[in-house]
Amino acid sequence: MKLIVGLGNPGRQYEQTRHNIGFEVIDRLSDQFGIPLNQSKLKGFYGIGFYKGEKILLLKPLTYMNLSGESIRAIMDYYQIDMENFLVVFDDLDLPVGKIRLRQKGSAGGHNGIKSTISHLGTQQFNRIRVGIDRPVSGMNIADYVLGRFQKEEQVEIQEAVKKSAEACESWLTNPFLQVMNEFNQ
Fold first, then answer.
1. Domain 2-184 part of CATH 3.40.50.1470
2. Is 19 a catalytic residue?
3. What is the pLDDT of residues 53-75, one digit of tens each?
4. What ranges do the domains of the chain cover?
5. Looking at 2, 19, 28, 128, which residue is catalytic?
6. pLDDT computed for residue 99 by the predictor
7. CA-to-CA distance for 54 and 2, rounded, in angstroms?
8. Of 49, 50, 52, 133, which has the highest C-beta tally within 10 A?
9. Do the beta carbons of residue 71 and residue 42 sit within 8 Å?
């Protein structure tokens, strides 16, 4: 079984915010694969289904961003998912809006959801898709920025990034992650 996790915050007030880009990718995959997110336990909201013979689990942690690792660890333990079968999608301040970057390991880079994931998994060695949300203008509070919505002029780029991220996730279901990295990090 392969696990794809999108990081975000539960609740209507956080929908379509910069910090919830991971949730948007999971919603797109849910629609694309016909896998309803209809299970709520282990501190997450998820669905299980099949794609081209591969059993997959799509997860949106319900722990809020800063505690994402709690849900991820619980799901991985419960379903006995190996680290190489885990992929996480999240927002990244260090990439321009709409740019995606795939990596197999790395630090949290200041992202609290990834800090929590690293802490609960005990490793930085896991597959990830970083979706660029850019940095706020000088003087703006980071928390206010990531919990804010995209500007109208950013909508096309961010929707393209969600689409490309979902395509990368889909490719990973049938290809080695290194091959997917080489294809999508162009």
1. yes
2. yes
3. 999 999 999 999 999 999 999 99
4. 2-184
5. 19
6. 97
7. 8
8. 133
9. yes
